[in-house]
Amino acid sequence: MDKDIKTSHLLFDEAPLLIRPELACRIGLNEAIVLQQIHYWLENKRKSVKEKDLDKEKTYINGRFWTYDSYAEWQKQFPFWSVRTVERIFTNLENKGILISGTFNERKTDRTKWYTIDYDALDRYVGKTKTKDKNGKNAKVTHSDNLADCSTTHHDNLADCSTAHSDKLADSITTSWQIVT
Q1: Strand arrangement, sheet containing 67-68
Q2: Same domain (yes/no): 105, 160
Q3: 34 with 88, same domain?
Q4: Cα(8)–Cα(137) distance, integer angstroms
Q5: How many domains does the chain have?
Q6: Which residue has the higher pLDDT, 165 or 134?
Q7: For residues 16 and 4, what is the distance between their CA atoms, to the nearest angstrom?
Q8: Mind listing the pLDDT tens digit for each residue in 144-175?
Q9: CA angle 38, 22, 30 (to 5 degrees)
Q10: Spatial separation of the C-alpha atoms in residues 162 and 105, rounded to whole Å
């Protein structure tokens, strides 16, 4: 039965990029998007390779799975950013100590970087606390040592936004919005 149901091409008919709000609070929205995508590729590899085959797996190096692509290839996964923005995000993650890079290419002239996540560094990472935004408006972002404890409050002329999240999947996630006119 083929019904003509109205939808929009802007809604998900393809795999969406999903991130946890706590992660975006902790490391930044762009960085969270990239890190989640890298985690996706690392997990795909980890789940597809049997333990007995690890010694033959070219993306398993020094006890870690790695993923690789050029910035231009990564940009194809994030078509809403320029190649330069993708490069800047990767560099930010490396500078934060969350993303580890290396070159394990067979050809010495191939400068493609390989990446893996330092999950321990991610769990320990604490972002900066901000009390004013760039326009001097009240904007408070606080972070704790626990990735689960992240709250964001923004005050501007458009809305009051309060978001509370828990790292435990069984706990509820609450979000409230109040439109100010």
Answers
A1: 67-68, 114-117, 99-102
A2: no
A3: yes
A4: 35
A5: 2
A6: 134
A7: 24
A8: 444 444 544 444 444 444 444 444 433 434 44
A9: 45
A10: 46
